[in-house]
Design brief:
heterodimer, A: alpha/beta, Rossmann fold, 9-stranded mixed sheet, two-stranded antiparallel sheet, 7 helices, B: Rossmann fold, 2 domains, 5-stranded parallel sheet, 9 helices, 28% helix, elongated
Chain lengths: 256, 329
Amino acid sequence: MKILVCMKQVPQKDAPLKLNESGTWIREDVSYEVNEPDAYALEEALRQKEKHGGEVVVITAGPARAQQVLREALAKGADRAIHLEDAGFVGLDAFNTARAFAAAIKDQPFDLIFTGLQSDDYGFAQTGVILAELLGWPHATIIMQIEKKDSGIRVKRELEAGFFQYVDMPIPAVLTIQSGINKLRYATLIGIKQAKNKPMKKVTLAEAQSALAPNLQQIRRLYIPEKTKKTELLQGGAAEVAKKLVEKLRDEARVI
Amino acid sequence: MADTILVVVEQREGKLNRVSFETIAGAQAIAAETGWTLEAAVVGSGVGEIAKEVAGKKLAKVYEVESAKLEPYTPDGFVAALKQFVGQRQPRLVLMPHTYQVRDFAPQLATALGRTLVSDCIGVRKDGDGLLFTRQMFQGKFAADVALGGDPPYFATFQTGAFRADKAEAGASAAPVETVNVEIADGVIRTHPEAPFKEAKQAVDLTQADIIVAVGRGIKEQKNIDLAKQLADALGGELAASRPICDSGWLPMDRQIGSSGQTVAPKLYLALGISGAIQHIVGMKGSRTIVAVNKDAEAPIFEVADFGVVGNLFDIVPPLIEEVKKAKA
C-alpha cells in the first residue's frame, strides 16, 4: 500500500508561549515538536507497510524548522518526504492547507492518506476530512485500528463515551488517526543515517499559490482567556501547602 | 427572506444527544442579538419523536430531514441530505455541537458547499454586519476571535460546555414540525458501518466515586503512578488519568477521564500534573471541588480549579499524603 502521512510541527506541549506584538499569533522563538496524533499516524503507516509492502511518504507545510518533523519520520522508516516550505503556510486555514496538500500530491497515486485527528495549535480537526472531499475520496475519523481486506479496508472508529464501531470502506481513503492506536517506535542510529540520503521534495508557496484561495477564516485577535472561575492559589513550601490544602478539603470542601 | 440560523441537532441511534440543547441555547442568544429567525433540523430516518422533543424549545420551526438511507449514520449520507436541505433553505448560519459525529461529517459538508466551518467555538457575537467567533487555540492556552470571509451559509460548531443546556428556552407553544424528504442516490454512501459497541465491561465505574485522584503527563514515569495511588488510598478515592497516561498503558483505559473516556462529577477531583486540555476538562468540570497541582501556572486546568497549587507534584504529594492520614486519624 502507498500511504501518505500528513504531519505538522507544533509548539512543545509544555513550552511557555508568548503572544507576538500584534496579538495575532504566538512568538515563534519556542521549541517545537511533532503534533502527537501525527506521530501515531506515521507509526500506523509504517506498520501497514511492514505488513503489506508499499511506500510511506510524509508531507508537511511550514517554514524551514518544520523539516525536522520530516527528518524524524524518514529516520523512523518513511521512504520520502514532501516539504511545503514557507512561513506563509502556517497561517493557512484548514481549507487552504488541504488544498495545498492536494495540489502537492497531484498525479501521485496513494491508497491511503493518514492525518492526526487534530493539531495541538489550531485544533480544527478538519484538514483530513476536507482533503478527502477535495480528492473525492471517502474518509473515516478518529481511527483506532486498520485492517486490509480484499476489497478495501476495515477500520475501528472511536466514538464518544467508550464506544467503538467497525466500518468497512473502499480505498483510496483518508483516515484521521487517534493517539494511542499503536506504540510509537524510536528512530535507530542506522535509520538516522539512512534518512540523510532519502528524497526530500520542496514545494514553494509560489508553486502552491495557484491552488489556494483567500483564507475564509481570519484570526483578529489572540489572547489569554479570561478566567471564569475564581481559583484560590495555595502558596508556600510543600509542607505548608499540603497542610493548607488538607484544611480546605476538611473545612470547605468537606471531603475529609 | 429573513436571515435564518439553523441548528442541526444530533441524534445517534435514534436518540437525541442532550448536548444539542447547549447548541440551541447558544443559538438563541445570537438570535436575540441579531433578530435572526432560529430554526432547527434533525437528520435521520424515523426521527419524528426527536423533532417533537426539540420543538418544545423556543424555535420558529423544526425540520425532520428524512431518508431511509440516513440510518445508520454515515458521513456521506448526512452530507448528501444536508447539502440538499441547506442548499434549499439558505440559512445564514448553521450551528452544530462539536461532537465526534459532527467532526466526522461537518468539514465534508462545508467543503462540498464551498464554505468554511469554524470548529470548536466557545462563543459568538455580532461584529458590525458580520459575526465574530471565539475559539480556543494551543490546547486552551489562548483564545482567538475569528472573523469569517466568503458567502453564507457560515458553519460553526460549539464546544461541549460552552453553553448551558438548561438555558435553552422553552417556547410558549410547540414549534411547527415539517418533514423534508431528501433523495440519496444509490452509491453515494461509500462506507458501511457496523453497530457501535463497548470494548469490555468496565471494571471500574468512576462515575460512582466521591473522590478521584487523576494523573496526567506530569507524573512522568509509570513507576510514579504509585505515588498518586497512595494519595487516592489515603483519601479513600479512586485513581484516574488523562488520555496520554492510558495511551502509554500506564493505567487501563477504563480509568480514563475525558471526551473519549468517562465523564465524572465527584465531590473532589484532584488533578496531578494534568495540563487540562479541553478533551479532559469536559470529562470532569462538573466536579464539586476541583484541586489542581501543576508546575505550569498557565496550565488551562487552573481555569476550572477551585484550589490550585503551582509547583512540583513530587514535592507536594508526599507531605499531602501524610497530612491526609493525620486528618483522618
